[in-house]
Amino acid sequence: MADDKALTPRSEDFSAWYNEVVLRAELADYSPVRGSMVIRPWGYAIWENMQRALDDMFKATGHENAYFPLLIPMSFIEREKEHVEGFKPELAVVTHAGGKELEEHLVIRPTSETVIYSMYAKWVQSYRDLPVLMNQWANVMRWELRTRLFLRTSEFLWQEGHTAHATEAEAEEETLLILDIYRRFMEEWIAMPPVTGLKSESERFAGAVRTYGLEAMMQDRKALQAGTSHMLGQNFSRQFGLTFQSEEGQEEYAWNTSWGVSTRLIGGLVMSHGDDRGIVVPPKLAPAQVVMLPIFRSDDDREAVFGACNRVAGALSEAGVRVRLDDRTHLSPGARFWEWERKGVPFRVEIGPKDLEKGQVVVARRVHGEGEDRKMFLPESEAIGRMPGLLDELQAHLLETARTRRERDSVRGGVESVEALGEALDDGAGFVYTGWSGDPAVEERVKEVTKATLRVIPSEEFRSGSAPERCLGGEPSKMEVVWARAY
Amino acid sequence: MADDKALTPRSEDFSAWYNEVVLRAELADYSPVRGSMVIRPWGYAIWENMQRALDDMFKATGHENAYFPLLIPMSFIEREKEHVEGFKPELAVVTHAGGKELEEHLVIRPTSETVIYSMYAKWVQSYRDLPVLMNQWANVMRWELRTRLFLRTSEFLWQEGHTAHATEAEAEEETLLILDIYRRFMEEWIAMPPVTGLKSESERFAGAVRTYGLEAMMQDRKALQAGTSHMLGQNFSRQFGLTFQSEEGQEEYAWNTSWGVSTRLIGGLVMSHGDDRGIVVPPKLAPAQVVMLPIFRSDDDREAVFGACNRVAGALSEAGVRVRLDDRTHLSPGARFWEWERKGVPFRVEIGPKDLEKGQVVVARRVHGEGEDRKMFLPESEAIGRMPGLLDELQAHLLETARTRRERDSVRGGVESVEALGEALDDGAGFVYTGWSGDPAVEERVKEVTKATLRVIPSEEFRSGSAPERCLGGEPSKMEVVWARAY
């Protein structure tokens, strides 16, 4: 696993860099089944940390976890018209089981609205049974021909929340609550600050009334749709008979929302913070925040060095730091150094015989700001005492860096035609804010000419100070929108 | 959801009781797809607590989580001869995806040995890369025609561990380590003490060299196979080219183990502890260990009662107790009482205006031992202070009760023919310990005559004091074995 070969630099070929770094950080690997991936322990541990954090946020806002079936009858998928149009081309179909052809073919869930609302219809009778606030952590399948690890695979892991409410207003409130949870999670945990907003009609979820999205800017300035929250209206409740008796005694259809984020977030993490040495994992998500590296040549040194490493590891662990001791003495210090650089562990603490003599330990930063030293030589107790603060500082630094980069690479104002948009993007713009008339024909033309798409109609906090007057198509503008080339 | 209709008593029809109690405790529900189930929030929260506890035990012994693909090429399943014979009749097959027929059909994993060892073959080069100790939490599919919620469904949730080792001895050690982790988990968390041991050849996992199993006795005296740990030898490593260079520089095949427990454990929990009022959840696994029930008639009382409930709930929570406040004032106290009885919450704390006057709270036990009062009237501070101890006592009581029941319903010695075994079982024996010659023909005949199967060749600690001399077939006995009718 020791692998000192340099990565393709990001500046040379970002896409090649991404594929290499995902493999060499041992986040994931290609599987024997085309389009599926294997998530390796380092990648899965990051996912577990994401899950834990999000799950806590969902539960703190009254959501419960449940589990619904993997297989969905084809007739269910077909019931909501837009839904089936959107998903049919991507379905994987089980035609045979138990040695026989099935009477009705079953699809592997591409998303679970249909089966979940059919169950809610069974459980909900009265307004007193509402709201229903459930989430499931599950695998889903959307057949893809052109796949990329984490970003686009046929099978992926995600959470999907599904709620039912008595009123439209409550459903809208839920949709926005989740949008806010996602935004906070991406900022506070992944240090990946998204721009949030409404999706245009052409980009919304198949079956939704409104889709809100979170768009993060990667280092190559492309947008990554990092999560979505859908207001489904009564589209599914009508198809699945999800009704309730209102407080006034009337039979009414419930209002639904659904929302999800997936293992794609790991791809976002990689493309937000990685550098030419490897990935960088934000401290709050790092499976190991500190790696202890004992360094010695002779067996005489070994005991003293290991003793010090164990002592420091124990003290860090007691201070709430996730620490791992790398005791693979068959690997050279250099090989181990490179492995943890690739894997993006925030800090290494190295201890060798000379350090013991000097009464110090070496604290090496995975990321150092300008003017910061890569290595710090600190007395043991100081290294231990400062570590929680160093981790917090790094977490904040990564967020600040990503936010600064996002705004640096955003163009607000001055782009007033499709051609000008293309030029701005070719000149290195990431997110371009312009006016829009609301006409889908403009979206079509932008796509053809520039390969960019309308990412969001930004939420108020992300809008530019002065509203643009003109749409790219020349008409008067009705709203400000964000364009970008996207993953 | 208020549902005061009594359950079918266990003594009358255990099977009907089981189906009713699973539905009415809202653990699970039938889904629109035949053979699949929906795990509802109360059931899923129990599963999450099981997962957390087991996952901690796996990680404490050096295992890491990963995730492997849902779909497996048919040719992979077919590679290990016994494996395909065992699983082929139960496969669900994806023949079409992305709108086309697939060149090679894919099966939904019934278990993941094949795809996982094909990946290990890619990752392992040298003895230094061993052992590989991975686990995944996943859904699997084994097509079933006769299904029962949690006990036998086409799709179920489980964990599957897969390890690779340099030597046979290490693999055997791992198999037994996991067997021990499972036993401890079932005893300490589910309060469901299993008998452990080796499976006979006819009952072992398709592709294994040796299968160890854990058999728990349900209240109807039937055995539930609650978990298995397999020593796979080199069967899979040979088929998938999982080799490594040994310390001596030779190319060798790795030794594998695999092991799993599933949501079936929830069925075991239900059938171990449930009574005619509902399920009983052991405190360590209970999503809520205490439910607070405010009781009042007038709005005047409301504030004082809620104030006291919130105060007690806060204090219990600080003491590390999982507590839930049931504030559904539209339901009568009786309806809420029955709901929590059904759902098996260990303790209720009820507070009404009269209790406030008397300076007391009512602590009601879900389960009370002989001579114990169902309700205790305690000063608030005493109720809070004693609660952690009460939960521990209940946990211990459930284990002790289950162990006593298991041994009471086990017959050791004196059964020396197939006919006598049938009579013992008909007379109410659960586990019957007898001698066995090792001849599979005896197993066949036992099954035909008595419907019982050989559950395990018990581990030393479960063997009877004196070894039986005769096999049920009349031959000299080679080992002691346990027979039971099983789920």
Identify the CATH architecture of the largest domain in chain A: 2-Layer Sandwich
The end-to-end span of chain A amounts to 30 Å
Structural class determined from secondary elements of chain A: alpha+beta
Shape of chain A: globular
How is the quaternary structure best described?
Answer: homodimer
CATH class placement of the largest domain in chain A:
Alpha Beta
Radius of gyration computed on alpha carbons of chain A? 25 Å
Poorly predicted regions of chain A are none
Taken together, the total number of domains of chain A comes to: 3
Adjacency order of strands in the biggest sheet of chain A = 3-7-8-14-11-10-9-22-23-21-20
User: β content of chain A, as a range?
Assistant: 25-35%
CATH topology descriptor of the largest domain in chain A: BirA Bifunctional Protein, domain 2
**Largest interface by residue count?**
A-B, 59 and 59 residues
Give me the secondary-structure topology.
2 copies of one chain form a homodimer.
Chain A: H1 14-24, E1 28-30, E2 37-39, H2 41-60, E3 64-65, E4 71-73, H3 74-77, H4 81-87, E5 92-97, E6 100-108, H5 113-123, E7 132-141, E8 155-165, H6 168-188, E9 195-198, E10 210-217, E11 223-233, H7 235-240, E12 243-245, E13 251-253, E14 255-262, H8 264-273, E15 290-294, H9 299-318, E16 323-325, H10 333-343, E17 347-351, H11 353-358, E18 361-365, E19 375-378, H12 380-408, E20 410-412, H13 418-426, E21 431-436, H14 440-450, E22 453-458, E23 479-484
Parallel strand pairs in A: 3-7, 15-16, 15-17, 20-21
Antiparallel strand pairs in A: 1-2, 4-6, 5-6, 7-8, 8-14, 9-10, 9-22, 10-11, 11-14, 12-13, 17-18, 18-19, 21-23, 22-23
Helix pairs in contact in A: 2-6, 13-14
